[in-house]
Amino acid sequence: MLPLINSSRRLLRLSHLRGAHVAAHKLHAEPQNHRSLVRVEGTEASAFLQGLITNDMSHLEDGATSMYSMLLNTQGRVIFDTIVYKRNDESFLLECEQGRVNQLVRHLKMYKVRRKINIDAVDGDYRVWCVFEPDIDMKNISKVDMESLYLNPRAESEVALPLSGAVDDILVTRDPRMKYLGHRLVVPSMRNTLEDIVSGVQVGHGLFRVLRYRLGVGEGTAELPPTKSLPLEANCDYLHGVSFHKGCYIGQELTARTFHTGVVRKRYMPLIFLTDPPGPVANDSAITNEKGRVVGKVRGSDGRHGIALLRVEECLKAETLTVNNVPVQTFRPAWWPIEASKKVK
Fold first, then answer.
1. pLDDT tier at 12 (50, 70, 90 boundaries)?
2. What gap in Å lies between CA 45 and CA 48, rounded to an integer?
3. How far apart are CA 67 and CA 241, in angstroms?
4. Are 265 and 317 in contact (CB under 8 A)?
5. Angle at CA 188, nearest 5°, toward 184 and 190?
6. Does residue 59 have a pLDDT over 80?
7. What is the 3-state secondary structure (H, E, C) of the chain?
8. Which residues contact residue 344 at a Cβ distance below 8 angstroms, ignoring those fewer than 6 apart?
9. Percent of the chain at pLDDT above 70?
10. d(CA 23, CA 201)
11. N or C: at which end does the chain have fewer Cβ atoms within 10 angstroms?
12. What CA–CA distance (Å, rounded) separates 145 from 153?
């Protein structure tokens, strides 16, 4: 197993400065068993990925340890959502859905041609964990907080965790999509828990998905159906996952045209069930307003929380919304940047 090159030591030093702040928060840790990793390494690895992903590899060259991105088909539709982790200047890990690792490897190798890179699955070597606060008060996300995050997103790329013990083999990074999703850790698979290295953490299951739903963040095949989802509808632009300044990449033309000249009328948004659904809510279930008009589709649900692809303006103006005769509500997430309102009218 190759060691991970990471910023754990610097994070440990920062934890002494912010220890009081960290201790005040209730942290949970969850293994992301539905997510796995593909390694791309070699002297041309960065240039290779630059031509395939929606984000700009220069962010990693400038010091970021991870970034959110998507891989699109030639029609500009999502085929993989990924978080790219930097191990060193010639080695990167791409996180993807566990059941689609081999598909991602084949997709990358299709474009390899004669580049001096190696592409292989390392899902047996590492596990992805997330450490987060599950009880974020969505209504109290302040404007100042939003401005600091979106005016200089990379300034918020790393924040200390109360780490202890042997952590040199662990890659630690702030979730690159937004800080409210906490941290992601790439950990050797032999470690079955984080309790020995993250002070005061509670290990659980299922709370992170609910947190994503409350924030309106989709992930994986079920929520981002391959070849059907558009990156801007999935809020890839709001989640720091697409660059509009880099060169060409597969699917770039439609994405750039929509951003610069089009209108993003539909976006992924949180869904709240006002009563308990009588049974599981199937993905693609229609969401209708008081006039019976279909204004969106469910993309995932867990109890009274869900995520849906909605017609933004119509849903925010609707008097009532229902799914399978169950009343639901939605709201514009507080973390959406201010300029969002200009794009949905």
1. very low
2. 5
3. 7
4. no
5. 130
6. yes
7. CCCCCCCHHHHHHHHHHHHHHHHCCCCEEEECCCEEEEEEECCCHHHHHHCCECCCCHHHHCCCCEEEEEEECCCCCEEEEEEEEEEECCEEEEEEEHHHHHHHHHHHHHCCCCCCCEEEECCCCEEEEEEECCCCCHHHCCHHHHHHHHHCHHHHCCCCCCECCCCCCCEEEECCCCHHHCEEEEEECCCCCCCCCECCCEECCCHHHHHHHHHCCCCHHHHCCCCCCCCCCCCCCCCCCCCCCCCCCCCHHHHHHHHHHCCCCEEEEEEEECCCCCCCCCCCCEEEECCCCEEEEEEEEECCEEEEEEEHHHHHHCCCEEECCEEEECCCCCCCCCCHHHHCC
8. 263, 264, 265, 267, 312, 313
9. 83
10. 10
11. C
12. 11
d(CA 244, CA 116): 27
CA gap 236, 344 in Å, rounded:
15
Cα(212)–Cα(194) distance, rounded to whole angstroms? 21
Q: Which tokens is 17 given?
A: 């400065």
- pLDDT tens for 85-125 read 999 999 999 999 999 999 999 999 999 999 999 999 998 89
**Neighbouring-strand partners of residue 92:** 40, 86
All domains in the chain, ordered by first residue: 8-200 (3.30.1360.120), 223-343 (2.40.30.160)
For residues 150 and 237, the answer to whether their CB atoms sit within 8 Å is: no
The terminus-to-terminus CA distance of the chain in angstroms comes to 51
Using CA atoms, how far apart are residues 300 and 78, in angstroms rounded to an integer? 17
What gap in Å lies between CA 286 and CA 73, rounded to an integer? 26
- Token pair, residue 328, equals 């639901």
> Taking the alpha carbons of 77, 150, 310, 134 in that order, is the dihedral positive or negative?
positive
d(CA 329, CA 320): 8
Confidence check: pLDDT of 11 > 70: no
Prediction pTM value: 0.86
For residues 273 and 298, give the distance between their C-alpha atoms in angstroms, rounded to a whole number: 11
